[in-house]
Amino acid sequence: MRRPRTSVTIGSALGFIFAVSMLSILTSVIWPGQAELLGPIFCDDARPDAFVVSDTYSSGTGETATNFTLYCVGPRGDHRDVGWFKPFLGICVMNAVVLGVAIIAVGFRPWMRRLRRSQTAGPVDDVVDRSDEVTVRDA
Amino acid sequence: MTALAIATALAFTGCIGATDRSDFEAEIERRGGGVTTDLAAEPLDRLRDELGVDDPELLSLSIAPLTRTVVLQVRDPAQRRNVDRYVSRGGGAFDDPEPVQISASDDVDARTFRPSQLPALGDLEELADQAITALRFEDAYVDAIDVGLRNGAPVFTVHVESPRSVGTAVFDGAGTLLGAAQQ
Q1: Which of B36, B63, B130, B145 is the best mutation test for A, with the most CBs of A within 10 A?
Q2: Are B19 and A51 within 8 A, CB to CB?
């Protein structure tokens, strides 16, 4: 039985969003400094240098927690707190682009393989020009 | 499986590319402390809007550039005997104003000054540079700027620190250096 096309599309979109969210959470914990790549988006000319600052504190139950904040810093040390929500959204967009390109590359592989096979098999004359042919009919 | 183990290990020990808070503050100090004119200008503009007056009456003005915190003691224009404390943290909006207790003997009028008496507020960078130059500390940065009355006139006291020294430089409202001393 064929599934309705809309539900497949919605399911794929939700799966993609979930994968991007998980990937972004994981990569932002391992490599929070990637948010500094977004400096040109969040920082203006007066404070052009992006810094991801970590604050580690004890939660009181013997555990420690770490917060990240993106700052834009100027040449005199003046700085602006960008926070973490917007940079995290930026990381999600970056990951969505990377994941999207990967999916497209994998999805197009069979199509590329078919194309390559047809090229190695040589050109095929699909269209035959018959304009010069004269049809003689018996009277 | 190996990749997952590496990712988990990095998640707990990693934080690649992040700067620790203490290192970040050291970087701010290395660049001079972070004094810029907008530190005072923006809170004063917000105060003018909030009170509806062009030149509010102040009792004190303190700037901590590292945390971008500005603390103002302000006389209420509607009831001038009432003094409120306004705090702006991180360059953001004011917290709710807190009332300040005034004693019966406190001469509030004698401590009052106005932003219009402080033209140097329009160039705090110059004030910070002059203070650092006057004190001649190695790797110096501005830790704080306070404004208050001295002999009836408002003065800026710029606190300068370095890894080995602490000092202050005092300026009049126009930004003329009155003196600098190591503590």
Answers
A1: B36
A2: yes
The sign one gets for the Cα dihedral B44, B49, B53, B59 is negative
What is the DSSP code string of chain A? Answer: -PPPHHHHHHHHHHHHHHHHHHHHHHHHHH-GGGGGGGHHHH--SSS-EEEEEEEEEE-SSS-EEEEEEEEEE-TTS-EEEEESHHHHHHHHHHHHHHHHHHHHHHHTHHHHHHHHHHHHT---------TT-------
Q: Quick: pLDDT tens for B122-179.
A: 999 999 999 999 999 999 999 999 999 998 899 999 999 999 999 999 999 999 999 9
Which stretches of chain A score pLDDT less than 50?
A: 139
Can you give the pLDDT at residue A139?
A: 43
- The tokens describing B49, both together, are 């809007």
Closest partner residue to B10 (CB to CB) among A30, A34, A51 is A30
Which ipTM was obtained for this model? 0.78
d(CA A76, CA A6): 55
Residue that wins the pLDDT comparison between B104 and B73: B73
Task: Report whether B119 contacts B41 (CB < 8 A).
Answer: no
Query: Are B27 and A51 within 8 A, CB to CB?
Result: yes
Query: What are the pLDDT digits (tens) for A3-17?
Result: 677 888 888 889 889
pLDDT in tens, B78-114: 998 899 999 999 888 899 999 999 988 888 899 999 9
Average pLDDT, chain B: 90
A residues 47-106 lying closer than 8 A (beta carbon) to B: 51-56, 66, 68, 71, 73-81
Nearest residue of chain B to residue A79 (CA atoms): B34
CB contact under 8 A, A76 and B39: no
Gap between the terminal Cα atoms of chain A: 58
Cross-chain Cβ contact B18/A71 below 8 Å: no
Amino acid present at A111:
W
